[in-house]
């Protein structure tokens, strides 16, 4: 099968992209951007291989080979138009700390982490750098070491987190539009991050605790017992954070629309539990509970869900 056709990259440095994090989303982006113009920054100081080799199964079911070179560890990083950080939320800050001195100060850094908290910590750590956040609804998973499945087409919204990111947002968006993925600028990125947080807070912990696909939570008594109190808490917190806060019923409707649209998906949290990997609960319901504590709100349902999910991977 021939590789899909890409539009020509047009930006000054040749449309080069660096990616930190070769998980499913990192691999999807690497294989979707123009070939020869992407490098993975290796996780370890000495990568086991020169290239990350895998097959991408596109949303239409066709498979394409991808061979993405790792940057040389002993050399300076190649000049690039942007860096995509596609690690898990907990790994993003330590991974950036390891490489930041090799990155020019003006390179836009686009954060793809789930949930909330890691992006804010990174923006606070390097406020002088152009740091952006991406919220993506692209579905991707790695069923095996050498296969990435683009499970569902979505879109990616990008917005700035630090003042220096404002002016580079249009260039970053244009650059990433050289992929086959849909990318848009998002002036209200905080609101978008919260919308995604709401969906993850209402689906992920239930799928992990009930060990089921997204759609199956909807009729489960445990979900039915807790979803309204959960949505009340999310509504209360959003209002206290000064965000545009839909009613608890509207939040439930949003959660259930996504659960129905992704009914057969295994959520990222359930996948982590099944593989006995740390989950992102501290950045989802755990984040909500801790913001509640900071603002003197008792958000007991989020706290209970966070504690129960943590217990799944700590024993
Ligand atoms: O984002 C997701 C995740 O699994 O983390 C949802 C929307 C729940 C889709 O599975």
From TrEMBL:
One of its GO terms (cellular component) is cytoplasm. Residues 189-312 form the Ketopantoate reductase C-terminal domain. It catalyses: (R)-pantoate + NADP(+) = 2-dehydropantoate + NADPH + H(+). GO terms for biological process: pantothenate biosynthetic process. One of its GO terms (molecular function) is NADP binding. Residues 18-161 form the Ketopantoate reductase N-terminal domain. It is an enzyme of class 1 (oxidoreductase). Signal peptide: none annotated. InterPro entries: 6-PGluconate_DH-like_C_sf, 6PGD_dom2, ApbA, Ketopantoate_reductase, KPA_reductase, KPR_N, NAD(P)-bd_dom_sf. Its EC number is 1.1.1.169. Belongs to the ketopantoate reductase family. This is 2-dehydropantoate 2-reductase. The lineage of its organism: Bacteria, Pseudomonadati, Pseudomonadota, Gammaproteobacteria, Pseudomonadales.
